[in-house]
Design brief:
The chain is of the alpha/beta class. It folds into three domains: about 110 residues, 3-Layer(aba) Sandwich (Rossmann fold); about 230 residues, pyruvate-formate lyase- activating enzyme, CATH 3.80.30.20; about 60 residues, OB fold (Dihydrolipoamide Acetyltransferase, E2P) (Beta Barrel), CATH 2.40.50.140. Helix content is about 35%, strand content about 20%.
Amino acid sequence: MKTVSLITFGCAKNLVDSEVMAGCLREAGYALASDLSTSDIVILNTCGFIGPAKDEAVAAIENALALKRKKPSTRVVVAGCYTERYEPELRKTYPQVDAWVGVKDYDQIVSIVEGKDFRASDRTFLLSHRTPRALSTPASWAYLKISEGCSHRCAYCSIPLIKGTYRSRPISSILEEVRRLAAAGVKEINLISQDTTYFGRDKSRSGSLVRLLREMTKIGGLEWIRILYGYPEEITSDLLEAMGEPKICPYLDIPFQHAAPALVRKMKRAMDGDRALRLLERIRKNLPGAAVRTSLIVGFPGEGFAEFRALQTFVREAAFDHLGVFTYSREEGTAAYRLGDPIDERLKQERREAILRAQAGISASKLKAHVGRTLDVLLEGAWKDDGRTLVGRTRFQAPEVDGVVFVRPPSRSDLPLGPIQKVEITASDVYDLQGKTVE
């Protein structure tokens, strides 16, 4: 039995693609392994979205080829967005790589690693409920990809160049996958897409996301449904009403990117800071206690002192529960590429750190308010640094990007411990909570 190490870089959507490749390989009789040095095959599923991701991909390729030099029988396969975007150049730079896989042929991975002929697809791969998939997340939760590609044309973004236009999965296929995951014990489904709120619009079916959510709430065994990656202008009243269902986490991940009106227009985005604040007010009115996450870009061409001050003011007034900040990365083929990259990288980093400092105070204050409360916590397993401590998340914490709850288990070892526990919150810090199970 040959062993395969499959390493994923980038976002949760890449992780699902890796799970598809792992499922296909497992069905074909391959064993999945974590030790690259002893594996027969090394697969790197790369990201090519921004500069740091590309640097990470290059380092991973060179590391894998160093292993191959020590063990020439090792097959190295480089897959994913970085390959899709730069394959001709990469083939010239790294001729020692055995195979290249873009974003169109993940389901053909067995033929690819075995060097067999296969029918290449002409568009980005989109899984169905019939696609083999080997979950890599904890047993209590999973990601579920509902579409592929993006039909927005944000000035800075390379995703449409890599993935193509938006394509929704059929609702029936998604629901069948959810039923199978729930039957396997998964309690939380995290819906992911380049733009989850666009779901169905490529098929001229408005309201498809609301319909999907309402159908998902009927599936037995499933406890939490979370929506990730939603565009602000697509947060409708119908969606907010549907999110009032008990199984749907009152959580929205909305990438506003910036607040200064002139910069938002340059970015080819639709919502500046004033409009964003009104949307947040509407969300919090309709979904009391809702958690909102956003992502922002600093250092976009034209971001002067005034524009950055506007962003700082927006962050303070918006009081997000969670926030991520990226420094601008100039990407070939995007509309913003012609604007150059005039802002010094050091200044970009200073601005990023300033936003994160402001958010740290907001986050610490919000988490402190939970001390003394009893919350439902979805357990993920033992904390790696301490076998006596469990780690989990509340309904207002998304996996892998937000904070966690460190949980002290029951003092009595004979008490049953299900995947969702009542936890009394005893302490907080800037991003995480601590608590003990309620016996």
